[in-house]
Amino acid sequence: MTCQFRQFWSAAINSEFNSHYVNQTCEIVPRDPQMTLLPSRWIFSFKIDEEGDHKPKARLVARGDQDQNTYSENEVYSPVCSLDLIRIILSYAVKFRLRLFSCDVTTAYLYSPINRNMFMRIPQGNDIDPECYDIDPECYVCRLLKAIYGLRIASKSWHDVLDQDIVALGLQRSKCDRCVYYYVREKKITLLATYVDDILLASNDNDTLFHIFDCLTDKYKLRISEDPRCFIGIKLDWSDDHNFLSLCQTTYIEKMGQSFSFRYR
């Protein structure tokens, strides 16, 4: 890597490899001629945080588009919370003065175990296992233990893991949306919505909030924001007294305009 941002991308790559190592996403095994191997690739991008800063991000993905296995719809389809219900939860938070939090699960898919044998070529750039050096990629491969990014089953596997953990906390799954959960105790209410690796949480029950955060942070690496300024690309603008909340998707609109070569005057 010889570009001027080499040190930033190298740090992002090392961070991604460390996430794979911590979550034990694979193991190095001898290559068998009968194995069907998936290639891997790196995806480099800039992620914009709530402050508007661009953070270099490197993602190691498997080439799931070359996976020849047959899957049922239940194995690949992963639901997300509808935008209408997200707006309803936000309106409830304003109307009933609920504390509002957003949580972002870092490298979410790497927490999802895989229930079938899948093998991937050793990625370029570094050793996926710090204890293994000078590995010949023609003699060794990665046996996947987690449903990493790029696999066709990755999204559904992650949804199932998160769903089980949320239900285990005592929250009930909504009958109208599989990604909305609630808990009611006397005059206390807790609402939780999931959108892939993003979680929206509104509650006036501090005990339940602390219980949820304690349990989730024990299992996942979370970035938690109270009174978030942004959620799944929707900008949240609060009034000074928190009696009014406006939603804006300027960034999304501009991105769509650029994709269609639309010029703003």
Content-based structural category: alpha+beta
Strand content: 25-35%
**How many helices does DSSP assign?**
6
- Counting DSSP E segments of at least 2 residues, the number of strands comes to 15
Please give the order of strands in the largest beta sheet. 8-9-10-11-5-12
- Which range best describes the helical content: under 10%, 10-25%, 25-40%, 40-55%, 55-70% or over 70%? 25-40%
Tell me about the largest β-sheet: 6 strands, antiparallel
Q: Secondary-structure element order, as H and E?
A: HEEEEHHEEEHEEEEHEEEEH
Q: Between the first and last Cα atoms, what is the distance in angstroms?
A: 38 Å
Average pLDDT for all residues: 88
Tally of structural domains? 1
Low-confidence stretches: none
Question: Per the principal axes of the C-alpha atoms, what is the gross shape?
Answer: globular
Radius of gyration: 21 Å
Describe this structure in words.
- The chain is built from 6 helices and 15 strands.
- The radius of gyration is 21 Å and the shape is globular.
- The mean pLDDT is 88.
- The longest helix is centred in the N-terminal third of the chain and has 17 residues, at 6-22.
- It has one domain (6-259).
- The strands form 4 sheets. A 6-stranded antiparallel sheet has the order 8-9-10-11-5-12, sandwiched between helices.
- It is an alpha+beta fold.
- Helix content is 28%, strand content 29%.
Element layout with pairings:
Layout: H1 6-22, E1 26-30, E2 37-38, E3 40-48, E4 54-62, H2 73-76, H3 83-95, E5 99-105, E6 119-120, E7 140-144, H4 154-168, E8 172-173, E9 180-185, E10 188-195, E11 198-203, H5 206-219, E12 222-226, E13 230-231, E14 234-238, E15 245-248, H6 250-259
Parallel strand pairs: 2-6
Antiparallel strand pairs: 1-7, 3-4, 5-11, 5-12, 6-7, 8-9, 9-10, 10-11, 13-14, 14-15
